[in-house]
Specification:
- The chain is of the alpha/beta class.
- The chain has two domains: 77 residues, Ubiquitin-like (UB roll) (Roll); 146 residues, no CATH class.
- The strands form two sheets. The chain has a seven-stranded mixed beta sheet.
Length: 271
């Protein structure tokens, strides 16, 4: 019995020593961690936030704008496990950011942010109210680039005309009008051939049907040659065929504006 009691004492002694070492280790780490957290290399620095190279239409002070508008705490410590999520949310709030694909925290205190930027594909033109850039989904984008930075670039984009609605929200949100959304998606499809084909306008409208109405689109060139695109659905396989047909017509006559009068307007609505 005495031998068994001595074994118990030895066992509990070992356990006590282990707990003592663990406790001292945790206590020591607590004090060390608190001291480390206040060192500059362990605290987020705005100057060390790197992002995917922005396209020309994104402002040069993009990162500063994101930090200011989001209120992200740039003195946050790398020990904050929620820091990647906070950085992601800050950049997602920018109207120029479509997606945040990855946030990597780096030492010394900084971050690498992999972004997908929104791309303007058209300008919604409104009588006496100027124009509004939109991306391929019909999301409203800031106008600064087209007004103050590179106003001449406006000529490179399709104009969406005939729109009477105003944007329902702020930049970075959907316009809120199916006509704008449909025209923007068509502009996105034609983005790579817009200048080559001399296209300048998309005119979306409602067309009555036996069961209600549908949206159809017309296109115009700089010389006002008209193209009847017809109904546009984003995932319709006919879209690719219509685009190819339009390119073929332009190549056949060396320009859409050279199409003989008897073949105008160019009707793709039945293709």
């Amino acid at each position: 019995m005495k031998h068994l009691s001595d074994q118990h004492k030895l066992f509990f002694g070992i356990i006590l020593v282990i707990f003592l070492f663990v406790g001292l280790g945790l206590l020591g780490w607590f004090f060390v961690k608190n001291r480390i957290m206040f060192r500059s290399e362990y605290r987020l620095s705005a100057e060390r936030i790197l992002v995917t190279v922005p396209p020309p239409w994104v402002p040069k002070n993009f990162i500063a704008e994101v930090l200011q508008s989001s209120g992200l705490d740039t003195s946050a410590t790398l020990f904050d496990t929620s820091l990647p999520q906070k950085i992601s949310q800050a950049f997602l709030a920018s109207p120029w950011v479509e997606e945040v694909r990855q946030v990597k925290i780096r030492y010394p205190a900084g971050a690498e942010v992999l972004l997908v930027y929104r791309v303007p594909v058209a300008l919604v033109e409104m009588v006496s109210q100027g124009f509004y850039p939109v991306d391929r989904n019909g999301i409203l984008l800031p106008t600064d680039y087209f007004i103050n930075v590179a106003p001449e670039k406006k000529e490179n984009y399709l104009r969406i005309t005939g729109i009477r609605s105003r944007p329902l929200g702020v930049t970075g949100t959907l316009w809120g009008d199916p006509l704008v959304h449909t025209a923007a998606q068509l502009a996105g499809l034609l983005e790579d051939v817009t200048q080559k084909l001399g296209l300048v306008k998309i005119i979306p409208s409602h067309e009555a049907t036996p069961t209600g109405s549908r949206i159809i689109c017309r296109l115009q060139t700089n010389s006002e040659t008209e193209i009847l695109w017809g109904r546009f659905e984003p995932n319709d396989p006919q879209n690719t065929g219509k685009k190819k047909r339009l390119i073929e017509i332009a190549e056949l006559y060396h320009s859409l504006d050279n199409v003989p009068a008897q073949f105008q307007p160019i009707d793709l609505s039945k293709d």
